[in-house]
Amino acid sequence: MSDIVEASGVHKPSLYRTFGTKEELFATVLRRYLAERKALLSELIAECRPGIDGVHDFLDKLEADALTESGQLGCLFVNSSTELRGSAPGFEHFSDEYRETMRPVFRSLVERVQPATDAIVDQRVDLLYTLILGFRVTVRSSTGTDETRRTMVAIHAAVDAWRS
After folding, report:
1. Cβ distance 75 to 136 under 8 Å?
2. C-alpha 19 chain-centroid distance
3. pLDDT per position as a tens digit, 39-74
């Protein structure tokens, strides 16, 4: 809280009146981050080609971001939800909220691949979501760009298996 006071010039009592506890302030930050992340990923998807090539475009954009200095820090939401899930008031359901917010975003990408049953689309959405979460964890814990690139190559290979 002291760092926030110093950076913002807002006094602690004002922060507590506005947000309540530190945990409630952090929950507000995470919700805002989630909304911004959803918008960013939706924009990236809109820029991608249709079909599997579009999924590869999207993955290339994620990799390019992950290789930036800020990208190496990882995803605030993924980092926080794995560490804080169920351990503090306001954090009990962030992983569920993240998944339910991102599922339609990833679905919009997967549905562009080729006509498929809802069950297959759902499986691909779940797989892509899981692979991207794992990628974000790898980026955060990685020792360098080689591991990041190897991980993304493996994800591209998994997506290529969707070709029929």
Report:
1. yes
2. 24
3. 999 999 999 999 999 999 999 999 999 998 888 887
For Cα atoms 142, 64, 146, give the angle at the middle one, nearest 5 degrees.
35
Copy the structure tokens of residue 153. Answer: 């190559």
Domain boundaries defined on the chain: 32-160
Q: Which residue has the tokens 């960013």?
A: 40
Residue 32 CB burial class (10 angstroms; 0-12, 13-18, ≥19)? exposed
- Interval 99-118: pLDDT, tens: 899 999 999 999 999 888 99
Q: How far apart, in whole angstroms, are the C-alpha atoms of residue 39 and residue 104?
A: 12
C-alpha span between 144 and 67 (Å, rounded) = 9
User: Quick one: which of 150, 125, 126, 129 has its CA closest to 138?
Assistant: 150
